[in-house]
Specification:
The protein is mainly α. The protein contains 16 helices and 2 strands. It folds into 2 domains: 216 residues, MFS general substrate transporter like domains (Growth Hormone, Chain: A, Up-down Bundle), CATH 1.20.1250.20; 206 residues, Up-down Bundle (Growth Hormone, Chain: A), CATH 1.20.1250.20. A hairpin with a 2-residue loop joins strand 1 and strand 2.
Length: 443
Amino acid sequence: MSKNDHSTTAHIDQQQRKTLQLFLSLPILSWALYDFANTIFSSNITTIFFPFYLQEVIGQNEVLNQIASTFISYANAVSSFFLVLFTPLFGVLIDRTGKKKRYIVPFTLIAVLGTILMGLFAMMNTDVKLFGLPMPLVLVLISFVIAKFFYNSSLVFYDTMISDLGKGREIPVISGFGVAVGYIGTLVGLTVYLFVGEDGFHEAFIPTGLLFLLFSIPLFLFVKDGESKVVTEKKSFFSGYREILITFKEMKLYKGVFMFMLAYFFINDATATAIAMMAVYAKTIIGFTTGQFILLYLVSTISSIIGSFVFGFITRRVGAKRAVTIVAFVLIIALILAVLATNQTVFWVSGSLFGIALGASWVTSRTLIVELTPDHKRGQFFGLFAFSGKISSIVGPLIYGTITLLLASYGNIASRTALGSLIILVIVGLIFHMRVPNTQEQN
């Protein structure tokens, strides 16, 4: 081996050691473990055990199963509504202080407390009613809304924390590491099922809250806030709303970005709603057991990983606009199969395709936003897209829940109709997407 070969090998080894040192540095590993922690909450509470709990408590027959779906949808919509109200204010807090951990810690503790209270309230044995509903059910619903709101709020600060942990080319590596560790959190969180089984789903709430807290502790202890910002311009606390309005008006001057924001709104609307409703739909409409659904969820998660990886290459080859179009068609096929599914095999195919579309959507949409937006306004437009995504998380569940409520007397047809409405949302998104310029041709 030549001297140059030795030098090249040494350089590669040094780079690999640097990457390994990056991952194993206490602040970055602690930051990634928070992704691990909050993913446990997201998968266990939002997607699986809270919907199963409501279906178990409310859904005694086909009609009541639809009412359970309505409760799930509306609870998610209410939480998203408060998030839309407060997210712009959180942005002002970050701009004013530069502090993230200061807010992550109390927000996480409140989310954990809300999750634990869900479990305690669900175990209450009383005949007292609130608003005509059993008091334990009402208290669990309120606790869920609080827990999910503060979980999502903590992520606003957590996501921006990455800029304090690395520089330049380190940031995407750190980001990918966090996502990978988060997926592992999904797998670890699902071990709670081993102690729950096929009923008594409220028993998953307290262990999930404790796991959320346990894996958040490293961030609490080992990640430090940056130095406080010196504020030269004193912004009003409510200036965040004005800035979003200004950014929206500016976006209308960039037709391609504006059209894709509308497309993203509808496609993300369908995706977010399907994620929230997939567990109870699989169980009550298709006939999955809890164990079978969890296995399906794991397969969908693996499909998401594969989708995000494969569509990275597809996007590079065909361009971001065409890649988004392909993802939308995959999503439509997955939803059609789910609506028409009369056996578990078809739903397995649907769930796998949905996982691919979910993973691919993050890759393709972010790439297209970068291609469409001017450098000096990219941060503003990314913020508006995130805000748009939060609003769509209200609309989709409201539509789904209202359909299941109005058509509850038709039994399972109500849920199939509600899921079918998501196909319409994706098609509307595609119509707007057709008006987005093809950036590959421009380049």
